[in-house]
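The records we work with from here on pair a chain with its fold. Taken together, the tokens spell out the fold as the letters spell out the chain. To see the layout at work, look at the sequence and tokens printed below.
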Amino acid sequence: MNRPITTANDLPARMLRRTKRLVSGKIWQSYYYNGRDESGKRVEIHLGADLNEAKRKWAAHECTKAPVETGLMRCVFDRYLREVIPGKAKNTQADNHCCLKMLRLVFDSAPIDSITPQHVAQYRDKRGEKAPVRANRELSLLSHAFNYAREWGYTAKENPCTRVRKNKKTPRDFYADAAVRNAVYFYASVDLQDAMDLNYLTGQRPADVLKMRYSDIVDGAVEVRQNKTKKRLRILLDDGGTRTELGHLIDRIRARPRTVYSVFIVVSPSGKGLGKGALRLRFEVARKKAAESVESENPALAARIRLFQFRDIRPKAASKMELSHASKLLGHTDQQITRSVYQRVGETVLPTK
């Protein structure tokens, strides 16, 4: 193996760069501090492979302030992208990448200690003109990244996002009544009908419905671990010796003759588990056919059908139940969320007389 090459013309004094070509052909590179041990003997102290972090460690050895460029938000974003985002769920990672792309346009070159609540509020207002909900997500990520920056030692400053209010968010209030739901269900493929029924009877998020397997059925209940909250639920297939509607649905799906066996409950005709993209495509096709079928006779119904989304099935389920039951089934720790976001039908009351 060749001796590592030292190139340090662009680095601070007593900071070294070592590089070497590996057997694979890739170039290995790392940084060191050219220091002394207690006896005065020269020793190279490893600073790591990341140049920004190496400069910060170099400053600690030199008992001086870290170079200005090591305190830019770009460095925080880079490390957050490298160390934090990979540990999140796949869909969350994709969303974080989109948020970071927008945040970098404004904050990338800003020194972290120069960012104030006013700057954050200005970003919120500007982004909120076109994408208020997206702006809220971006501010949440900025706040999370700033908290990590405090832990990493980039700043001791208070998080500037802490007391900045978010854009007001109006919950979706569309309710899929029986006419709307039945119209789409009539034109739905068998696998889509299974997904709609399972979604309604379990009250779970679409992603949690699609991942349900027969192995999740244990001791007379479907065991669910929600992707978003990690909350665990056991949804009963029998209630006091009587089969629930969910139990009948599982029995019906399981008894259906198949050429290919699948571990998933909701499957395509080929036996593959139904994915998010396939579900969306099937739903859009059924919704389009349903709307067109009533367009001439009932245009108002056709308009409501076109507003119907698969995610509206979960609130429809919540709206049919008493609040405490709905909150438990949906996996909410706060009943207020269930009441304000998911229950979209007013309380039924008697008239004065």
